[in-house]
């Protein structure tokens, strides 16, 4: 049996008539930048996550950048984040010429560890960028308490956590502001680049809305240094078609993950915990295994594709060489990079494929 790592081809074939209609409507309307399709998508996503409003952006990376801008992160400020994430979580710090400061992660959830963050706080610390990695909400009570205690801004990277909730509140609405991505492989994957910003604070939302469009409230007056971070009409139109299915796709991801949690029995394989107050939406299902490469080869040879997010922590990337970090600085993140395996989890997976993945992993003998 073959189990690809992702398979959205069939979904797109099934949705093709709807998708083509949405493209045609946009073409006919001439609303290529922002416009009514983007408005509709913003409303639909805001309603799903329980937000008053969200702001459609041209990518998750741009959305994160707007978050650092409205949190007033300035050159020389320190911003603490995780070394175990996609690089864009840290770009938003560098874009403002602030200093990324890394702290280690929790070995079971792979999420930034609040105790390690507290130890890294200095007088220069302005904000924390936390990542709800692989769809697992971060421990927000602890982070909110830290932000209060030290007067810090909390930026949530929700690129992988669509519809995930922490104690009933959607990620992105707990800290000061949040950024989502609609990169095609995400839980809500667009068919173009795409992202959005959200904040429960109307002042910040208004600022993000202004900054995404050149800080130009009306033609041609500019209130600030703005950006062209607008969502395109075609992006909004296509996302409008797919967003209707996001809840059911999320449930299917969670059902597959439950089968993995129950079924995976290989000794030494570490499976992420299931947190009732903060259920994961399983953008990835990630396990750790000491003899990782042998298990990966075994799975790949038997038709089970795997992912490897992330093979190298951010503090050891060439771009951050001047920050002076060394191997051994964040032992949990570094060990995780050497042991992580992402196994297939997507709504299109069939039950027999899920069983096959479980049986193949369990049959590995080292
Ligand atoms: C954790 C994380 N942050 C930020 C991003 C950036 O999003 P985008 O690719 O839409 O710019 C991604 C995804 O690519 C991501 O996985």
Task: Describe what is shown at a glance.
The chain has 366 residues and is of the alpha/beta class. It contains 13 helices and 11 strands.
Q: What does this entry look like structurally?
A:
This protein has 366 residues and is of the alpha/beta class. It folds into two domains: 9-243, Aspartate Aminotransferase, domain 2 (3-Layer(aba) Sandwich), CATH 3.40.640.10; 246-362, Aspartate Aminotransferase, domain 1 (Alpha-Beta Complex), CATH 3.90.1150. It is built from 13 helices and eleven strands.
Give the secondary structure arrangement, pairings included.
Layout: H1 9-14, H2 16-29, H3 36-49, E1 55-57, H4 60-70, E2 78-81, H5 88-94, E3 99-102, H6 114-120, E4 125-131, H7 140-150, E5 153-157, E6 165-166, E7 169-170, E8 177-181, E9 195-198, H8 202-212, H9 233-243, H10 246-263, E10 285-288, H11 292-301, H12 331-339, E11 340-343, H13 351-362
Parallel strand pairs: 2-3, 2-4, 4-5, 5-8
Antiparallel strand pairs: 1-9, 6-7, 8-9, 10-11
This protein binds pyridoxal-5'-phosphate.
State the shape.
globular
The description of the largest β-sheet is:
7 strands, mixed
Instruction: Show unreliable segments.
Output: none
If helices are DSSP runs of H or I spanning 4 or more residues, what is the number of helices?
Answer: 13
What attributes does this structure have?
366 residues, alpha/beta, Aspartate Aminotransferase, domain 2, Aspartate Aminotransferase, domain 1, 2 domains, 7-stranded mixed sheet, 11 strands, globular, binds pyridoxal-5'-phosphate
């Amino acid at each position: 049996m073959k189990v690809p790592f992702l398979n959205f081809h069939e979904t797109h074939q099934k949705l093709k008539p709807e998708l083509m209609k949405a493209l045609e409507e946009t073409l006919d309307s001439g609303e290529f930048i922002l416009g009514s399709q983007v408005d509709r998508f913003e409303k639909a996503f805001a309603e799903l996550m329980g937000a008053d409003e969200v702001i459609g952006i041209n990518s998750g990376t741009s959305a994160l950048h707007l978050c650092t801008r409205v949190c007033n992160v300035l050159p020389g400020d320190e911003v603490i984040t995780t070394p175990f994430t996609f690089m864009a979580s840290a770009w938003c710090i560098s874009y403002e010429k602030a200093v990324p400061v890394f702290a280690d992660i929790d070995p079971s959830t792979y999420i930034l560890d609040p105790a390690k963050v507290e130890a890294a706080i200095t007088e220069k610390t302005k904000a924390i960028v936390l990542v709800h990695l692989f769809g697992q909400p971060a421990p927000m009570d602890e982070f909110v308490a830290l932000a209060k205690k030290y007067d810090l801004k909390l930026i949530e990277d929700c690129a992988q956590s669509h519809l995930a909730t922490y104690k009933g509140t959607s990620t992105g609405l707990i800290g000061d502001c949040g950024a989502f991505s609609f990169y095609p492989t995400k839980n809500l994957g667009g068919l173009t680049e795409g992202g959005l910003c959200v904040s429960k604070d109307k002042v910040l939302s208004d600022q993000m809305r202004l900054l995404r469009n050149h800080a130009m409230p009306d033609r041609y007056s500019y209130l600030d240094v703005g950006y062209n971070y607008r969502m395109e009409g075609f992006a909004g139109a296509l996302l409008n078609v797919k967003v209707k299915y996001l809840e059911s796709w999320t449930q299917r991801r969670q059902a597959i993950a439950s089968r993995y949690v129950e079924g995976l029995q290989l000794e030494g394989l570490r499976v992420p915990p299931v947190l009732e107050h903060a259920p994961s939406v399983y953008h990835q299902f990630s396990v750790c295994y000491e003899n990782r490469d042998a298990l990966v080869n075994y799975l790949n040879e038997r038709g089970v594709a795997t992912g490897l997010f992330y093979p190298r922590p951010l503090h050891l990337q060439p771009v951050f060489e001047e920050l002076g970090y060394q191997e051994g600085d964040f032992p949990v993140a570094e060990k995780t990079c050497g042991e992580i395996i992402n196994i297939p989890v997507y709504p299109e997976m069939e039950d027999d494929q899920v069983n096959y993945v479980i049986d193949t992993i369990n049959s590995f003998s080292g």
